[in-house]
Write a structure and sequence with these properties.
It is built from 15 helices and 12 strands. By secondary structure, it is of the alpha/beta class. The protein has helices at 52-67, 94-102, 111-124, 144-147, 153-159, 168-181, 235-242, 247-256, 259-264, 269-277, 281-304, 315-320, 322-330, 341-345, 370-385; strands at 2-8, 13-19, 24-31, 72-79, 90-91, 130-134, 191-196, 200-206, 209-213, 311-314, 352-353, 363-365. 41% of the residues lie in helices and 17% in strands. Bound molecules: adenosine-5'-diphosphate. The site of adenosine-5'-diphosphate (ADP) has 12 residues, from helix 10 and helix 12. One of its GO terms (molecular function) is kinase activity.
Length: 386
C-alpha cells in the first residue's frame, strides 16, 4: 500500500509517500509559509500557499509524477495530542476529527494544524481512508503514580492537567527495533530510551510498554533541549509573573530561549560540541548540565523499569553525537555502563551495540523513523478495517 504521511504544522506541511510493503520512500517534501503569502508569483506577491487546502494542491502536484499509475491507498497523519482518549492509531471520521479538535486547548500550536490537514484531505479526497497516529498514545500505559502531578485534583478533572508524554510513535518503533536487536520479543523488553532531537525526552519501558517519560503536560518538561529549559522550579514562573513578565514572555523564554540556546547561545548540538572542544566554557557547561540531567533520569528510570536491560539512544543527537553519548555514559558508572570507544564513534544507519562486552547492560544506537512508523500503523489500521 502507498501511504501519504502528513505532518501538518500551523504554517508548514511535511509529507512523505511511502511504499509500506517495500519499506521505501517514493518522494517527500516540505511546504512552508502556509497562510503567509497570497499564492505568489506576480509583482509584490509573497510566495506561499494561502491555506492548508492550497498547500495540499502543491503536494498533489509534486507527488503526481512520482506515483505514475499507482494510487495512494491511505493518508496517515501525525497528530500531536491524543489526550486520554486515544491509546492507538484510529481511522478518521467526522466524530474523530471533532474529538481531536476538542483537544486543541491541550496542544494549541499543534492540534488545530493537524485538524486543518485532516479536513483539507477530506475535502480533496472524500473517499480516502485517513488514520490519525498520536504522539501521546504510546504513553497511555503510564501508571497513575507516574502521570499525576501532586496538585489539587480539580486541576486534573477540570483542566486535564496531568502528564501525557510525547515522542510516543518514535518510542514504540525504537522499542520494537531494540528488542529485535537483542533477540527478544518486545513484550520482554525492559529498557530506557533517550530520544534526543531538538525536542528531547527519555522513556522508561517495562515489558514493551511505557511506564514513565520525561515530557509531561506539554513537551517542555524534562530534559535540557535545543531551546527548551526542561525541568525547573515552578516558583520561578510565579516570581517572573510578579516581576511583570506576561504569560507570553514566560512561554517564549522557556520554549524558545532556554535549553542549549540559553546556556551556550546555540541550540544546535553539533555547534555546541564544537565550541566546547575549542575551549568555550559556556558550551562545556551546557553539555554538563544536559548530560547530567539525562543521566539522573536514566538512573531513575532504571529503577522504574525494575532494572533496565538496555539503554537506547535515538534521534538526531542520540544517533549522531558520540561526544554527547560519552558524556552521558561517563556519568552512569554506578550502573556499570561502559561504552566501547570505537563502536561509539562508528556510524551506521542500522541499529547497533556501542557498549563493551563487560558493560552491565548493552547500550544501543537505534535510528528512529517516525514517518515509517506512521505509514506502517496507517496501513495496518486500514487493512484491519476492511
Ligand atoms: P527534531 O526534533 O527537529 O526532529 P533531530 O532529531 O533532527 O530533531 O535532531 C536535531 C539535533 O541533532 C540538533 O541538535 C543537531 O545538532 C543534532 N545532530 C544532527 N546531526 C548531528 C551530528 N552529526 N553530530 C551531533 N549532533 C547532531
Amino acid at each position: 500500500m502507498l501511504v501519504l504521511v502528513i505532518n501538518s504544522g500551523s504554517s508548514s506541511l511535511k509529507y512523505q509517500v511511502r511504499d509500506v510493503a517495500a519499506g521505501t520512500v517514493l518522494t517527500d517534501g516540505l511546504i512552508e509559509k502556509i497562510g503567509m503569502g497570497n499564492g505568489g508569483g506576480g509583482d509584490g506577491e509573497i510566495e506561499g500557499p494561502r491555506d492548508h487546502a492550497e498547500a495540499l494542491e502543491q503536494v498533489d502536484a509534486a507527488i503526481h509524477a512520482e506515483l505514475g499509475d499507482r494510487e495512494l491507498g491511505a493518508v496517515g497523519h501525525r497528530v500531536v495530542h491524543g489526550g486520554e482518549r486515544f491509546a492507538e492509531p484510529v481511522l478518521v471520521d467526522n466524530e474523530i476529527t471533532r474529538a481531536i479538535e476538542r483537544l486543541n486547548p491541550l496542544a494549541p500550536l499543534h492540534n488545530p494544524a493537524n485538524v486543518l490537514g485532516i479536513r483539507a484531505i477530506t475535502r480533496k479526497w472524500p473517499k480516502m481512508p485517513q488514520v490519525a497516529v498520536f504522539d501521546t498514545a504510546f504513553h497511555r500505559t503510564l501508571p497513575e503514580h507516574a502521570w499525576r502531578y501532586a496538585v489539587p485534583d480539580e486541576l486534573y478533572t477540570n483542566h486535564g492537567i496531568r502528564r501525557y508524554g510525547f515522542h510516543g510513535t518514535s518510542n514504540e518503533y525504537v522499542a520494537r527495533r531494540s528488542a529485535a536487536l537483542l533477540d527478544l520479543p518486545v513484550e520482554e523488553f525492559d529498557g530506557v530510551i533517550a530520544h534526543l532531537g531538538n525536542g528531547a525526552s527519555v522513556t522508561a519501558i517495562r515489558g514493551g510498554r511505557s511506564v514513565d517519560t520525561s515530557m509531561g503536560f506539554t513537551p517542555l518538561e524534562g530534559l535540557v533541549m535545543g531551546t527548551r529549559s526542561g525541568d525547573l522550579d515552578p516558583s520561578i514562573l510565579v516570581f517572573l509573573g510578579r516581576a511583570g513578565w506576561s504569560p507570553e514572555d514566560i512561554d517564549t523564554m522557556l520554549n524558545r530561549e532556554s535549553g542549549l540556546k540559553g546556556l551556550a547561545g546555540n541550540n544546535d548540538m553539533r555547534s555546541v560540541v564544537e565550541a566546547s572542544e575549542s575551549g568555550d566554557d559556556k558550551a562545556t557547561m551546557a553539555l554538563a548540565v544536559a548530560s547530567y540531567r539525562l543521566a539522573k533520569y536514566i538512573g531513575g528510570y532504571h529503577v522504574a523499569v525494575g532494572g533496565a536491560r538496555a539503554l537506547v539512544f535515538t534521534a538526531g543527537i542520540g544517533e549522531n553525537s558520540h561526544q554527547f553519548r560519552t558524556q552521558v555514559a561517563d556519568r552512569l558508572g554506578a550502573l556499570g555502563i561502559e561504552l566501547d570507544g570505537g563502536l561509539n564513534r562508528g556510524r551506521s544507519k542500522e541499529p547497533r551495540v556501542i557498549s563493551t562486552p563487560s558493560s552491565a547492560i548493552p547500550v544501543l544506537v537505534v535510528p528512529t523513523d517516525e514517518e515509517r512508523a506512521i505509514a506502517e500503523a496507517t496501513a495496518a489500521v486500514v487493512s484491519s478495517s476492511r
